[in-house]
Amino acid sequence: MLRYVINRVKSSIIVLLMVSVITFFVLMIVPGDPAQLILGTDATPEMIADLHRAMGLDRPVYQQYFSWLVNLIKLDMGTSYVYGKSVTSLIVNALPVTLSIAVYAMAVAAIFAFAAGIIAAVKKDKFADYFSRSIMQLGSAIPSFWIGMVFIVFFGLRMKIFPVSGFVPISSGFSGFIKSITLPAIVLAIGETGMLLRIVRSSMLDSLKQDYMDMAKIKGLGARKIYFKYALRGALIAPVTIMGMQFAKLAGGTVVVETIFALPGIGRLVLNAVEHRDVILLQGLVMFITSAVIVTSLLTDIAVMLINPRIKAAERGE
Question: Who has greater pLDDT, 161 or 276?
Fold first, then answer.
């Protein structure tokens, strides 16, 4: 496994370098002068030229890239034009919001998807199966912004159970923290449950058809042991992989949900960076999101290897 992890880390570094090149040079050609954006429309050409020199924008592009890459390795992503703060500090402050929602959403989605998926597989072509598949299709079809608005009106404004906007840090109280992220997390969970439920159901059906399931039944093992110890263990690989991909997507920011619920997360940062053409902030966010996806993918692959000994043995060349 160690050799596998080392090889993955090497390939990840290559991917990050490629993404850094693409990100830097593509955003460099985006219309708009950063110095002009910072100084405003009243800036004189002399003021703009001075700021160009101060920011290093008067140097050749390749020198700018290598300087930016060295600073990036030091976790210095520059200073945002819009916020006037370091990009690193902005990401650090926004990350707890997005991670909290992502973890909560994936927990809710996993609980419902595994429960409904297992029941649907065991009760194939019966009412429970048709009902769970209908819920799966319904959750995947409804836009998240519409569900979010319905939740705000019903649970926030009418029933007044949950706040409709803002984020309460866990340091200010666990109850307020949970209430502030419950609605957005459930909205995200609804969107992710459909695919995960389908994968769980399909994997369970494949697992139930394996020869070792017949042997378990012949031995007279109980239904709970058959379904959960044997069938579910063999069906975990695909769902775990999908969950890793889903979590990486959520951890990279959810612009729509964070905007609807006015949450200061990674998604809102991305939206503001695009709206104001904050190239420095956008470069840092792209690299952070790419790194988050790569790390999550690596951890997911390691989890799959630990779940399935055969994959682990194959990686060792056994």
Answer: 161
